[in-house]
């Protein structure tokens, strides 16, 4: 029985063509900054984001944590939406590594200028100073939703409004763009417009783009020089990293525009599962389908466990939500089979009380 892995878009395997590009990569020692393939990828991503420079890092978590360290001092706060990856999925490392407290503002889909202003104002009452405004796009925890670039929306102000307000209040700005490629493809907003928002922007090669590893931190040359030292300090300076950077270059050539296929398949997956009584399926904006369990079901794991046993791998997004991630390892036929299995498995279930 074939297993379909929808736990994340990180589970993609390098394609044969990507492996060939990796095997052929020209490499050097990246800890000495002389791996030519890493340098090429750094220049290319910096160019796309309209930044002076970029730094290849093994993970997005390290990229985020270097951003925290760059922009804060111990005892500072950073402001982020409650489900931000940096706050809930990085093992409290902003606190552990940089002595910074992540302060939640706004809601699942982002926050407003007012939310940020209100938090900054609390400094006058002795709360920790907000040194850093944290943005994320797309927002993973909310199900890959796009944080709009401009204008006011219900409960969320556009990234450009928030960034301008943050700057006016003396905050640095980081954009966690692990899935910024998805936002770019679905909205058509140029990557450089996103890149212009923040002091540092992080993008991942290892999510929807399908490379085995790597994120890039983009900024001005001076900030990237400081980040390079932190990369070494955090244990991220790798040697012949060009074999991994080659996968990133291949992904930029072949796996960006195809993200639209993932988005289309996510919508069709969501539609095909929407009538099941077990959950309420949100309409996906990008490649992540989230479904909130309905009574009498209470725990997403009660649905995920039997699905995994039937070869449809998935996890709770949060305790009461199932997440199904669509990626380049799943074609139309795979989505059809996933739908059929989910309908069979859930059809045989009784509520978990
Ligand atoms: C996956 C992810 C990260 C971390 O990336 P890793 O490479 O898994 O460390 C950071 N932020 C967001 C929004 C993510 O989705």
Q: Can you give a write-up of this model?
A:
This protein has 353 residues and is of the alpha/beta class. Helices cover 41% and strands 17% of the residues. It has 14 helices and 15 strands. The chain has a seven-stranded mixed sheet with strand order 2-10-9-8-5-3-4, with helices on both faces. The model has no long low-confidence stretch (mean pLDDT 97). The chain binds pyridoxal-5'-phosphate. Pyridoxal-5'-phosphate binds next to α3.
Question: What characteristics describe this protein?
Answer:
seven-stranded mixed β-sheet, 17% strand, binds pyridoxal-5'-phosphate, alpha/beta, single chain, four-stranded antiparallel β-sheet, 353 residues
Pattern of helices and strands: EHHEHEHHEHEEEHEHHEEHHHEEHEEEH
> Percent of residues in helical segments?
40-55%
Strand content: 15-25%
What compounds are bound to the protein? pyridoxal-5'-phosphate
Spatial sequence of strands, sheet with the most strands: 2-10-9-8-5-3-4
Please count the helical segments: 14
Biggest beta-sheet profile:
7 strands, mixed
Number of strands: 15
The span between the termini is 31 Å
Summarize this, please?
By secondary structure, the protein is α/β, with parallel strands linked by helices.
